[in-house]
Amino acid sequence: MEEIEKRDLYDENKNLTGETMYKGEEIPEGKYIVVVLVYIQNSEGKFLIQKRSERKNGKYATTGGHPKSGESSLEGILTEVKEEIGLDINPEKIELYYGGRSDEERVFWDDYYAKIDVPNIENLQLQEEEVASVHWFSADEIHELMKQDKFFKNHYEEFERLEDWLKNKQ
User: Fold this and answer.
1) Do 127 and 141 touch, CB atoms closer than 8 A?
2) Structural domain span for residue 98
3) What are the pLDDT digits (tens) for 24-63?
4) pTM
5) Structural domain count, the chain
């Protein structure tokens, strides 16, 4: 039995309000939660993408989730990567490439990027409730998955932001 995650609530300026809510509850009017995700890219330029479990819509996506109550955004993404795909990432190897707010969804997006080689991804310990499998995909393959409606749309939008950021970084 998984425990229900408690999340911190923020105001529109991303200040902690001291209030919390549980996963699955509706986000109160005027409050926000943080969503974190990370795109991990290897030295060949491919991205570590997971196929979500059928319970989670079965689409391809990157690793992400929500920081638990008391965790910072960075701690939250490190926890999610460890829980979902069994990978420990050095916090110095991870970089915030986008932070934004969606008033419609009542969330702050914190998108991270890490350039690391992960050997033997078939040996990663996947969280079965959330992740069916992991794969290395090129940017072109990710675009193709999106065209076929096989990639999680919210994560694809953040991937497009990443591509712009990487172009400007060079």
Assistant:
1) no
2) 6-169
3) 899 999 999 999 999 999 999 999 999 999 998 999 999 9
4) 0.93
5) 1
